Structures are given as C-alpha cells and as structure tokens.
Amino acid sequence: MYDTERIGKIISDIEKYFRDLEGLDIKEIGDLEDKKNFYSLSMVLFSILNRTIDLGEEMVVANDLGMPSTYREIFRLLAKNKFIEGGLEKRLSNLVFYRNLLSHEYYDLTEKDVFDVSKRIEVVKQFVDIVKDVVKK
C-alpha cells in the first residue's frame, strides 16, 4: 500500500526544486565561476537527489522489495522487480555517486562536476513519471 500523501509531498518537493533549478538560469560552466551560482546549484542538485532517494525508498518499502543497504541498492531493487528498466537504474545510481560527493566531498567538487550533474539530473523526471503511473494504478 502506498503512502500517497508522503509520495505526493516528495514529488512536490522534487518539482519545486526543478523550478528552482530553472530559475538559477545556469546555461554554461562559466556561470559557475560566480560562487553564489556554484553553491546554489550544488544545493538544489543535492536536494533533488535526496528527495529522489526518498521516493525510491518509498517504492521499495511499499512493495516490500527488501531492505536496501545503500542508496544505489534502492534503484537496483526497483530494476530487479521491473519498476524501472536497467538503463534508468544505471543513470539514477550514477547520480547517487554524485549525491555522495555533494554530501561528503563537496570541498573537492569542481565547476565541471557540478555542471555535469546539472546536465544529468533530468533523468529524475523520468523516474517521477514512472512512480506517478505506478501509484495511480
């Protein structure tokens, strides 16, 4: 059974963070030379990734898919149980790597790292759409 209120809140947060991302209007890596842009983008990306993990975890728990020991395993379990396809699982798992960098090794992040994540983050929207469809059924 899905906790539709919690899932709805997570999705709402993700959508809000994507609007914030668009509002930053960062178009090229050079825009991140301004430290305000760099740190703002880093935090918005971190927030999107955290809520994406929360959403994946909700799906794992609601469908009794097991107890993931890592964030990446959340997406492995979803793929193994056919909620998402393997390519999506790989792209989401790759973002977990960057989430961990943003969280634990932020002092080593470069403008290129953050900009690369900003270009890959769109995959989260695909995951949100899948979750919406699954929960509707």
CATH superfamily: bsu32300-like
Biggest β-sheet description: none
CATH architectural designation: Up-down Bundle
CATH class: Mainly Alpha
Low-confidence stretches: none
What's the pLDDT, averaged over the residues?
Answer: 94
Q: How many distinct beta strands?
A: 0
Rough shape?
A: globular
Number of helices: 6
- Stated plainly, the CATH topology is called Four Helix Bundle (Hemerythrin (Met), subunit A)
Tags for this entry?
74% helix; globular; single chain; Four Helix Bundle (Hemerythrin (Met), subunit A); mainly alpha
Describe the structure.
This protein is mostly helical. It has one domain (4-136): Four Helix Bundle (Hemerythrin (Met), subunit A) (Up-down Bundle). The chain is built from six helices and no strands. The longest helix is centred in the middle third of the chain and has 28 residues, at 35-62. The protein is globular, with a radius of gyration of 15 Å. The N and C termini lie close together (11 Å).
